Amino acid sequence: MADGGFFQDSTVTRRMEGALMVFQRLDGLWMIDRLGEAANDVSLVHDEPEGDDESASARAEDLATAIAREEVCGLTDEERRAFHARQLRKLADISRRYDRGYGHFTTRQNLQLNWIRLEDAPDALAALAEVDMHAIQTSGNCIRNVTADHYAGAAIDEIEDPRIWAEIVRQWSTLHPEFTFLPRKFKIAITGSPNDRAAVRVHDIGLRLWRNEQGEVGFEVIVGGGLGRTPMIGKTLREFLPKSELLAYLQATLRVYNRYGRRDNLYKARIKILVHEVGVEKMREEVEAEYAAMRDGALALPAETIEAIARQFAPPDLPARPAISGPVEAQRLIDPDFALWLKSNVAPHRVPGYAIVTASLKPAGAPPGDASATQMDGVADIAEAYSQAELRVSHEQNLIFPHVAVEDLPQVYRSLQTLGFAEANVGKITDIIACPGLDYCALANARSIPVAQRISDHFASLARQHDIGDLKIKISGCINACGHHHVGHIGILGVDKNGVELYQISLGGDVDFGRTAIGTILGPAVTADRVVEAVDELVGTYLDARQEGERFVDTYRRIGAQPFKERVYAAV
Predict the structure, then answer these.
(1) Strand ranges (DSSP E) for 339-497?
(2) Percentage, residues of the chain above pLDDT 90
(3) Residue 477 and residue 485: Cα distance in Å, rounded?
(4) Highest CATH level, class, for 326-419
(5) DSSP code for 543
(6) Contacts (Cβ under 8 Å, ≥6 apart) of 416
(7) Does the model's pTM come out above 0.70?
(8) Where in the chain are the domains?
């Protein structure tokens, strides 16, 4: 960084415009200028021999905030929609040029590139800036990237598009000078649907849009959720918050956390610990007092500001298409795999004649969430041809086409088959969430990916998966819980004991709205070679005991842990 600091730089300013901080040319000239300086700094200090891949490589965790909605000025609505495919192609290009030709989509709805050489990092970041993407605030004790429902703007059950509010929060929180050194990292998630596809109750702050008895739409503000070493479900701080007051209330909450959050103990520094220790009533009292002092100030959101942001997320102009397609119904009858794909990977759209399609990044035996550069390019092609060039990344490590005409479903299915992303397993036992684990992460205690692959291979039969029904397995390689194991119907945590990788199993976790739960540990950890056998016994217990219409987690809640425990430990 050149002398003079960020705020004196002539090519970028951060100013108040209404309630939002607006950046001028952040993703363009300033980013490229600063990355050029970083490249020079790297070349001066990096003296490893050329071609020494092991010593010269550097992990670039959360390098790219994949398919993030960045501020794009001067573009038409059509160009903004097309930007998503362009961004994914750029990520594919970066993975080819600077990594090993693939990336890992994470539970933060980001893309992780794990093999960027240190001297290549400035060029890779400059390439991201070309398509208005960056890696700002993907690490550190700051407000991280804001996540939202991956069906946003298309879901049939949606009350209001949460992307509008995610963008407002992003603009407010990016490089916020008051919150760049919080006691610990801070994550915000937003949903606009009664069906929680954003896991809002296990975030530092969760925001749920809902309509009150007067017909007004506002936010339920949930605070103090989180997983990791001490998993907790968030508490409702405000039952109903008017939308225009969102930023003031967030700022008040962050100020209270910044003031009272623990800085003396890394393991007790998250806001969930503060809420737990002082109680939600005291937390509410402090936040409301702070909020009362600022609610009518500069952070109040005027209607024209909200409308301007909303225009960036205007729905595409979808031409009328038939709600029922003869060729689709004919293929459903003759192709059992296609029929299963329609059942599990296709969701209803708010516009008749259209559907939401999930591309499963979980083909049998593959690392969950991985995509090669070729596959990323192929997904971009499908998005441009059949989904208004729009893409989404789900926190379940899949890719979403939000606007597919029903009559185009067979073509999309065939295109996904070519890429290996047409597995009809969304929400099923092989749709596993898994962190990178010990294969990539310096914090991990055990491998995650090989365990997920073995489970996937064992349950590869689509007929068997659909007979089992909805069952969510989530795997983490350490207590930080990047694989969300605490809220898996079956959660698997890798631990290390005297150099041996063991796996602790928990049951009964869930993120569904109204049923959010932290899983309960079943018993002693099992060795790596027994994990698949243990999962098989859990599934067998469920199949023997389930009643009509019950999912795995429903049966567990009804009969309790003991039958599962007895059967697993008798076998392993």
Answers:
(1) 346-348, 354-359, 370-372, 392-393, 399-405, 433-434, 473-476, 490-497
(2) 82
(3) 9
(4) alpha beta
(5) H
(6) 359, 382, 422
(7) yes
(8) 6-130, 162-312, 326-419, 433-571
